[in-house]
Every structure is written in structure tokens, then in C-alpha cells.
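Give me C-alpha cells for this 266-residue protein.
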Amino acid sequence: MIPAVRAIARAAMAARPVPLAEVQARAELLARFSTTYLVPVDVFAAFAAELTDRRRPGGPFAALCINGRRWFRYQSVYYDTPDLRSFHDHRRNNLLRFKIRERLYADTGERQFEVKLKGEHGRTVKHRRPLMPGDPALGPAPRDFLAAVLDRSYGIEAPTELGRSIETDYQRATFVADGQRVTCDAALVCRDLETGRTVRADGGLVVVETKTSGRLTEADRLLTGYGVQAADFTKYCGGLSALRPHLYANHWRGPVRTAFPAATAA
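Here you go.
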């Protein structure tokens, strides 16, 4: 087993299990502030042990559990324009930026069409609608949904030319406390759907994302205490940068090299 997968699995099995309904009730956070960290597995093990410690003031973080499973496989396909408008809007830190993706929860077969927006003060707002089996991700209903979200939120028209950009695949464990969620991703693989090229993230790293309606969480403070700094890294922009090195932006260079050392060395 990849070290990072083993680390998230051990952490999830050590925590109290909670069903999806409780996670959604305590911290669904479709509108949230998010911070990403690239965490070595030894640091992650200590960090997770503190989060899930039953002696933690306010109670320990619990782990999402569905049908007896506590870590899950996620697959996403990201959509972009031929000139990569979404990617470049994020690279330039444009005010009105968005990502479009289809997400498959591989263990349950559930599919969602999602639009992620960057809102005021850097807040992430996610809009989603379910996709039924066989529904095309860019069929009329999802396109109407996309158009409505962008018009209502930004007052702009949706791009008409959209195609599949990259696919991501990884394992995730999710930990939750009231108003806080921490997602822990391992074994990230990104595939360029134009060229077929694949890059794999460092198997000794866990991609940790803290999510809250406020700014700074206990998880952020713990990671800072371990000497781990926030990383300007997203799976779409980081993965595409590793797959197509000519797209690099200087402020992403360090995190991309950390996440995909073999790909960037090549």
C-alpha cells in the first residue's frame, strides 16, 4: 500500500465513525474558506492523532464512514475552454474565476456536476447537481445549470466551447467537527485527457485541506505548529502544470515540484 494511503487509512480507522448525514449536518460547508497543505506522512500521522484524540477539548474529530468504509476513491474530470480560460483565470488570480468538473464517487457510483466559484475575500462557493447514470456531463441540463450559476453569481455568460481537460484520481478520508471539515487525500494521479500523459504525486505526501466558514481552524494551527506551511496548490491547476510544464506560474512552482517531484524532475 502507498504510504500516504496507509496513513489516511490508519487515521480514519482510529477515529469515531460518523455517517454522511452527520457530516452534512455538522459541516457541509458548500460555502467555505479552504487552505491546502502538502503534509509528509510522518507529520500527518502525528497531526491526525491530535485531531482524533478523545481527550481533545470539545471532543475529537470523527471520520466519515459509508457502508463500513472510511476512505474512498474519488475521480474527477475537469472541463475547460480550448484556450484554458479556467486555468489561466486562476493563474492570474482573476476576481471572477471558476472551475467546472464532473465528480464520480467510485465506491458508491454517485456522480455530480459541480461548479466551484471564488467568492468575496477568497471564499469558495460550490454549486452542484446530481448526474444520473448515462447522463452526459455537458448535456443540456448541466449546461443550463452552469449558465444559471454564472449569471446569478457573476453576471457573466457561460463558455460555450468546453472540453475535457484532465482527470484526477485519489483516495480520501474526511474528518469532521462542528463547523470544520478536514479532507486528506493520497495517491493523487492526474491524466491529461488531450495527450494521455499521466503524473503521480509523491506517495509520501498527504494533501490536507481545511474547510470552515471562518478563517483559521484548529487544524491550521496544528499544522503550523508542525512547521507545515499553506501551499498554493489545487488538483486542477497543479496537475495541469505538472502535465504541461510550459503552463507553469512562478507562484505554483514550489508546490507543484513538491507534489510531483518525479514529473517535474523529468
